[in-house]
Structures are given as C-alpha cells and as structure tokens.
Amino acid sequence: MRATVVGGGVAGSAAAIALRRIGADVTVYEAYDDPAGPVGSYVSLAVNGLRALDALGCLARVQSAGFPVARQRMWSGNGKLLGDVARGRRPEDPLHSVTIMRADLIGALRAAAEESGARIITGQRLDPAADPRATGADLIVGADGIWSVTRPVLDAAAPRPAYAGLYSVSGTSGSLPTGLPGNGFNWVFARHGVFIFLPVPDGTVWWTAQVAAPEPPPDPSAVGLANLTRLFSTEPQATAVLRAASAVRAANLGHVLKPVTRRCRGRFVLIGDAAHPVGAGQGASIAMEDAVVLARHLADAAPGSIPQGLAAFDRERHPRAGKLAKMETSNRDAKTAGPIGARLREMVMPHVFNRFYEKATGWLYDFDPGRLPV
Questions:
Q1: Strand partners, 194
Q2: Could you tell me the domains of the chain?
Q3: How many angstroms separate the CA atoms of 137 and 3, rounded?
Q4: pTM
Q5: C-beta atoms surrounding 225 within 10 Å
Q6: What is the per-residue pLDDT across 64-88, written as a single tens digit (0 to 9) for each?
Q7: Are 96 and 87 a contacting pair, CB within 8 Å?
Q8: Cα 307 to Cα 10, 267, 294, 297, distances in angstroms
C-alpha cells in the first residue's frame, strides 16, 4: 500500500509511524519548511494520548522531552480555589499527563517516523486532488489541520473555520512569583477570559492568556504584554505572572468548525483537526489516537479493501469526536461567561467540581486505541 499523508504536524507524523507499522510505503508532504518550528507554544497530553504514543512506540521519547503534570487547579479571579483534580487522568492512574512544547512533540514524532522508513518532505504544498504525487497513491490521509485543503476534496460543501470569539497569547516568565503554587496546571477564570499558568521544572513559568473578544483584534501581531496586563489587571495571579514575563508570542485566533459530515471517501480519509477539531486540551491526543485506530482498521480490512478499512475507522471514531466537541463547547462557554455566570461558578464549583469531575471525564481518559504490529 502506497500512502500519501498531507500535513507533517502531530497528526501527519503519527499517521506515518502507524502506517509504516502495518507495512505501508509512506510519504508525508508538509507545507512548512520546518513543521517542528516555532509555531504555537506548549501542548498537554492526557493519558489517552500517552497510550496512543505507547502504541506508536514513542512514549518514552516524548516523556523525556516534556515533563509530567499531576494536578489541575481552577481558580476564581480573586484567587479563590474552585477545584483541584488529577490532570488528564483518573486519580489512581500512575501514568501522569505530560506537557511539552509543540515543536518538541512534532520533532520527536517526525524523528520516529523517519526512523521507521517514512519519507517526510517539507516546504512543499500538495494538491491532494490533482498532484500526481497524490493521485498515484492507494491511500491519501488528510492530516492538514483545521484549514485542511483535503477536506474540500471529499466534500465541496464542507464547512469552513469561523472565529470562535477567543484569541490566545502565550509566553514565558523567568521565575515563579512568590505566593503562587509551585506545580500543576492552573486555570484562572478572569473577567476577560481565562489565564493559564504552569510552573516548569527549570524554574520558569509557561502561561497562556485566552481572551474572550466578540471580534478578533485588527492586528493580532500587535497584541502585546501591555494589552494583556490591562485586560487581566483585576486578577492578582495573572498580574503577577505577567509582570515576570520574559517572552511573549504572537496572538493566535481561535477557530471553530461545524461538524464535518464526510470524513472519508474512496481512498481519502481525514484525521485530527482536519476531521474534527476537538479542543478541550485534547487536539494532539485525539490526533494520535486517530493515527493508531486508522492503521489498526486498515490492517484488519480484507486485502485491497482500503475503503472498507476507512469506513470502519470512521464508524469507531465519529461518536468519540462528537462527544468531545460538545465538551469543548461547554469549556468555551465557561471562558466567555458574563458577570452573573462567573458569580454562579464561584458559588457552585467548590462544592461540585472535585466530586463530579472524575465521573464526567472518565470515558475520555480510559480510552485505549489498541495495539499495532511490532
């Protein structure tokens, strides 16, 4: 089987590894010169994503490039603790969530893909409908993200991304301000969105400001530290982290996508954000799950029956992606709640969050994508 993978990010690199494991001849085409370059900031991998990495044979490599995060804390804007739960896992799970720079995750996956025998060609955009490098393949995997060029090939009326009412700015602070927790993934529900900060083992702090804004900023690149300091001036924890900021990245606009109704057709299939942007801190984990499950179904299909394997893959993945999309909608609504919603949250969360969080998320973290041939 000759497979062409469009996109060399997390989804594309993971797909290359998985398809090589079932004996496919794999070529990945990535539009960027360096898909592991300075795009985005950090990503978190919950235990379901780590199980997918284990199936790909990359778990130890990724764990060594990132660091474990055991707890997740939710704070009100005034510093009141609203919840404290296990991060990305059930409390009894000895496997801990991993946080890693996106570039390091892609770099680790890309290296493993090349070691497996996949060819990764960077700096080349591929037209999956007309380019001979794609038309001659037995399988074409669209792993090219929310702005996928593969999606319209499957369905000319496929939805297009729309602004989500949020934009994000990430950065690094040189040290942890006095009085803030020295570990864990910390969410601060703020007046203008959510502020996230994460102490790192090297003594620095990684942070992200997710700003609720009905309209995107006219010039995202102009959003700087002064803007963020003003927007989060009423939240003491966020203010303290921003005062210690040593690096600020350019703003990224958040986008949403209406449900994609056609995710496979013939020899084409979409995975990761190209098929179902899920958010909720699960984008990378779900993309790697997709890669493992796709290869497993293709391996189980009758010889030469690629459409059969793709249809089975889609049937398995669609319900899980739909459930995650609903979770992400709820999360996004919580980030943009008005003053009344914020007040209700402060009253209710301390009494219910710790008690019900595990029950509400167990289905997500318990998932095992299965094994692949060695």
A1: 189, 210
A2: 2-69+96-161+257-336 (3.50.50.60), 162-255 (3.30.9.30)
A3: 6
A4: 0.91
A5: 15
A6: 999 999 999 999 999 999 999 999 9
A7: yes
A8: 24, 6, 12, 10
pLDDT in tens, 339-368: 656 565 666 666 566 777 777 888 999 999
Asked whether 200 and 158 are in contact (CB, 8 A), the reply is no
Which tokens sit at 223?
Answer: 């959003």
pLDDT in tens, 174-215: 999 999 999 999 999 999 999 999 999 999 999 999 999 999
